[in-house]
């Protein structure tokens, strides 16, 4: 479970793609354990709504939920700047959870070529950029954890997911290579493989929901 693997109390957690889905779920779980949260996503209205939901779970009056509206997949310098500003407000990042992602399904030849480019930008670079922006501070402090939320489609290719699966496979390669670099600095890199409930036929076969407290295993 999350509480057995990372000390969350009085820590500073950043979640990309945190305005909905798994990202929001993880943010709530961290907040319940006393973390200061920074939510990063594109939709400002969703962010503010999620902020209100998360604040209901506060365990002390010091906790803060900071919202940043930015596209983490487009401009690295912008991502770096907003994360720097966030760290100046709340302190250095102890835990970064990369949840930003999107999906397109269909047969290979029916998927528009620009969809392959967009998915690689969001699902892969959208995790590279935030991680790159915080890694130096983590190394200086000799502590930190980075989590990449992949997918079961990142372990096994699925019919109709020729644009999506490779982007999630890429996260595993990134995580494994990065872990080798940062382990001497007491930084841990983790990949989570939750099920994709929108996979064709999957929703009918499984009604199991993702256990938010164990996503960071």
From TrEMBL:
Gene Ontology CC annotation, any one: endoplasmic reticulum membrane
Pathway in which the depicted protein is active: Lipid metabolism; sphingolipid metabolism; Sphingolipid metabolism
Known EC number: 1.1.1.102
Catalytic activity: sphinganine + NADP(+) = 3-oxosphinganine + NADPH + H(+)
Top-level EC class as recorded in UniProt: oxidoreductase
A biological process from GO: sphingolipid biosynthetic process
Matches recorded under Gene3D superfamilies: NAD(P)-binding Rossmann-like Domain
UniProt GO molecular function: 3-dehydrosphinganine reductase activity
Domain of life the protein comes from: Eukaryota
Main location: endoplasmic reticulum
A matching Pfam family: adh_short
UniProt KW keywords: Coiled coil, Endoplasmic reticulum, Lipid metabolism, NADP, Oxidoreductase, Sphingolipid metabolism
Coiled-coil intervals, chain numbering: 40-89
Record's subcellular location: Endoplasmic reticulum
InterPro entries for the chain: KDSR-like, NAD(P)-bd_dom_sf, SDR_fam
Similarity remark: Belongs to the short-chain dehydrogenases/reductases (SDR) family.
Reported function: Catalyzes the reduction of 3'-oxosphinganine (3-ketodihydrosphingosine/KDS) to sphinganine (dihydrosphingosine/DHS), the second step of de novo sphingolipid biosynthesis.
Official protein name in the record: 3-dehydrosphinganine reductase
């Amino acid at each position: 479970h999350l509480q057995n693997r990372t000390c969350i109390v009085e820590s500073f957690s950043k979640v990309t793609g945190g305005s909905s889905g798994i990202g929001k779920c993880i943010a709530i779980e961290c907040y319940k354990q006393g973390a200061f949260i920074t939510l990063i996503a594109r939709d400002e209205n969703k962010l503010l709504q999620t902020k209100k939901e998360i604040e209901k779970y506060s365990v002390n009056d010091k906790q803060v939920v900071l919202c940043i509206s930015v596209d983490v997949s487009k401009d690295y310098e912008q991502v770096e700047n907003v994360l720097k500003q966030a760290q100046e407000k709340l302190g250095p990042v102890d835990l970064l959870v990369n949840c930003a992602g999107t999906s397109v399904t269909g047969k290979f030849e029916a998927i528009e070529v620009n969809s392959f480019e967009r998915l690689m930008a969001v699902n892969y670079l959208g995790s590279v950029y935030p991680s790159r922006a915080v890694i130096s501070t983590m190394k200086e402090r000799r502590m930190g954890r980075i989590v990449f939320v992949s997918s079961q489609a990142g372990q096994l290719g699925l019919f109709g997911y020729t644009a999506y699966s490779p982007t999630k496979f890429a996260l595993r390669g990134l995580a494994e290579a990065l872990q080798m670099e940062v382990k001497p600095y007491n930084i841990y890199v983790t990949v989570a493989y939750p099920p994709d409930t929108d996979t064709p036929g999957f929703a009918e076969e499984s009604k199991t929901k993702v256990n938010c407290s164990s996503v960071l295993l």
